[in-house]
Write a structure and sequence with these properties.
With about 325 residues, the chain is of the alpha/beta class. It is about 40% helix and about 15% strand. The chain has helices spanning about 15-30, 55-65, 90-100, 110-120, 135-150, 170-185, 200-205, 220-225, 245-250, 260-265, 285, 295-315; strands spanning about 45-50, 70-75, 100-105, 125, 160-165, 185-190, 215, 230, 270. The strands form 2 sheets. The chain has a 5-stranded parallel beta sheet. Strand 5, helix 6 (about 170-185) and strand 6 form a beta-alpha-beta unit. The longest helix is centred in the C-terminal third of the chain and has 21 residues, at about 295-315. It starts with 14 loop residues before the first helix and ends with a helix.
Length: about 325
């Protein structure tokens, strides 16, 4: 009996499998809407269990499941019995009897791990407070599209430098630390000292057999020097609204502005996983500049997630 595979963190696929996914996402993007599209989810129903509000994640997964021939079933956690105390193990066992796979967007990373441990269907981490692997794979695809020039998508990422600004202990920062180490990129994270990466990340890299390719600085300009990419996310994440005033005050020096873009390489790109708050974590000047590819980045969630679902089903 084949082992059920899950995608909970970046390293759940090998580097060679990531190379395959980059190529598959490129092919799915080029073939979208054309006759003879692959339908690996034909006859399948995939659950989409969400505890957090969503635009890009929900729409891209729902459209992607449909385009792969499947039927998406949207489930709000607050409407399920698990929100009233039913154990994750029981919910996972029950839903595995109904569904062929599940996409989960939640708070605790233990929830996706619990579904993977106790269920018998593929589990996809569509975001937890600890990691956001679908976003990182989509971001890597977006950059490889730009840099490969028709060549090797994965190889085009090697040796590139990304500067990350803001909350460097967030799920996006964690996922970039893992993803960068996996593909041979360096990453400099810049933010207030109290938002530095936690030692937990070093332990995770060691467990995964990955080198430490990141560093942390409180100097935003230092982070930008020779960077190929400037990246930021909202300074106030969902669930942290009560910290808004303090967070915005602490992180104001890390707003990605024209001066930081000028300090990077002349051809540096700007990425943001959206939604963006122009004037907080990024200026309108940078967000709307020709170097900003945030909407290509958002579109590529659809193509990469279709590739991930295909890989989980077909192997």
């Amino acid at each position: 009996m084949a082992t059920t595979r899950h995608f909970l963190k970046e390293t759940d696929f090998t580097l060679s499998e990531l190379a395959e996914l980059l190529l598959l996402a490129q092919q799915l993007k080029a073939g979208r809407g054309k006759p003879g599209r692959p339908q690996p989810l034909a006859g399948q129903t995939w659950g989409m269990l969400f505890a957090k509000s969503s635009t890009r994640t929900r729409v891209s997964f729902e459209v992607g499941i449909r385009e792969l021939g499947g039927s998406p079933l949207y489930l709000e956690q607050k409407t399920l019995q698990m929100d009233r105390g039913e154990p994750i193990a029981d919910t996972a066992r029950v839903l595995s009897r109904y569904l062929h796979g599940i996409v989960i967007r939640c708070h605790g990373h233990d929830i996706v791990e619990g579904f993977a441990q106790h269920g018998t269907m593929p589990v996809v981490n569509a975001l937890t407070d600890f990691l956001h692997p679908c976003q990182i794979y989509s971001d890597l695809f977006t950059l490889a599209e730009r840099w490969s020039e028709g060549g090797d998508l994965l190889k085009s990422l090697e040796g590139k430098k990304l500067a990350y600004y803001g909350d460097c202990a967030s799920n996006m920062a964690h996922s970039w630390i893992l993803g960068a180490a996996m593909v041979g990129m360096s990453i400099v994270l810049a933010g207030p000292k109290e938002f530095a990466p936690t030692p937990e990340l070093d332990a995770l890299l060691a467990r995964e057999g990955l080198p430490k390719t990141y560093s942390f600085t409180q100097d935003p300009v230092e982070a930008a020097r020779n960077a190929d990419v400037l990246y930021t996310d909202v300074f106030v994440s969902m669930g942290r609204e009560e910290e808004k005033v303090a967070r915005l005050a602490a992180m104001q020096p890390y707003c990605v502005n024209g001066a930081l873009l000028h300090a990077a390489r002349p051809d540096a790109l700007f990425l943001h996983c959206l939604p963006a708050h122009q004037g907080e974590e990024v200026t309108a000047e940078v967000f709307n500049s020709p170097q900003s590819i945030v909407f290509d980045q958002a579109e590529n969630r659809l193509h990469m997630q279709k590739a991930i679902l295909t890989k989980l089903v077909l192997g």
